[in-house]
Amino acid sequence: MAAPALERPTTPSGTQTVTIAKALNMGLRASLERDPKVLIMGEDVGKLGGVFRITDGLQKDFGEHRVLDTPLAESGIIGTAIGLAIRGYRPVCEIQFDGFIFPGFDQIISQLAKLHYRSQGKVKVPIVIRVPFGGGIGAVEHHSESPESLFAHIAGLKVVSCSNPVDAYWMLQQAIECDDPVLFFEPKRRYYEKAELDTSIDPLPLLSSRVVRPGSAVTVAAYGPMVRTCLDAATAAAEDGLDLEVVDLRALSPLDLGPVFESVRRTGRLVLVSEAPSESSVTSEIASRVQQECFYSLEAPVLRATGFDTPYPPSKLEEGFLPDLDRVLDVVDRSLAY
C-alpha cells in the first residue's frame, strides 16, 4: 500500500545544511506535528533523546504521552506498538542498536508482518521500526550488525534505508504515513555527515531507487552507508578517466530495480556493494534479477563487494571487514577485465 502524498509540515522551508541525525529529528518532529496519532517509543528516546540524539527535544516539546521511554524489552516495545496500531495510532519504535532487534524478531515476523493479511485487510498496522545499522563506529559485539536481508525476505514488511539528509528527512515521514509496517534502516556511521536539505522540494516516492551520479563505464549500486563509499570511489575513478554510474537503491523490499536495469543496459557491467555478507542477501537477489532481465546486455558477470560471510569482527578488525573505496575499485577493475 503506497504512502499518500505528504502535507507540508510547519518546519521552516528553505535550504539549510544538516546532518542525517538532524534531518531524522526534523522528520520525526514534522510527523508529530502533522498527526496527533504519531507516537515515538523506545529505550532512552525521551529525556536522553536517544543514544544518537535522534529524538533530542521531542519529549520536551510533545510530552511524555507522545514520546515514551520504555523498558529494555524489544519484544515488549514492538508488541505494545502492534496493539497501539490496531487502535489507530502510528507508533515509531526505535531499536537502540541493530543487534538488539532480535528479542523482538518473533513479534515482527509472526505478528506485525502478518496481521494485515491474516485479517483480510481489515487490520492495518502502520508501524515504523527505526534501526541504526552497520559498522564503522568502533562498537562492541551486537552493535554493528546488518540484518536487513532477514527482514527483506519477509512478506508483509517494507524495508528501506536512507543514505543522506534529504532522504532521511522525507523517507522517514513517508514511512510513518504508510499504512504498512516499515523497517527503516539508518546508516549510523553516517549520522553526522552533512548535506544541503531543501524542505520545499517534493520528495521521491518512498519505494524508489535513483541514480545519484551518472556514468557510462560501470554501474555501481548500493544502499545506506555504502552509497557514500561508492560516490567516493567514483570520484577517485574519475581521476583516472573512468566514469562510474552510482545508483542508490533506497528501498530493499520491494526493490525498485528499473533504474538499475536501465543503467546496466547502457554500461553492460554491474558492481553491487553492501556491508552485509554476500550469502543469501539483498545483493544476491539483485544479481539474480539483473541476470534475468539484462542477460544480453551484460559484458561481465555481476560482481559484488560486501562484508565477509562471518560474524561481525571486534572493532579493531572492522576496517578490514567493511568494503572501502579500494575494495570497490578492485571489483570494478575485475569487471572491466572481462
Automatic annotation (TrEMBL):
UniProt-recorded name of the protein: Alpha-ketoacid dehydrogenase subunit beta
Organism: Saccharopolyspora karakumensis
Domain of life: Bacteria
Domain (Transketolase-like pyrimidine-binding) ranges: 18-193
InterPro entries cross-referenced by the UniProt entry: THDP-binding (IPR029061), Transketo_C/PFOR_II (IPR009014), Transketolase-like_Pyr-bd (IPR005475), Transketolase_C (IPR033248)
GO molecular function: magnesium ion binding; oxidoreductase activity
Keywords on record: Oxidoreductase, Thiamine pyrophosphate
Cofactor: thiamine diphosphate
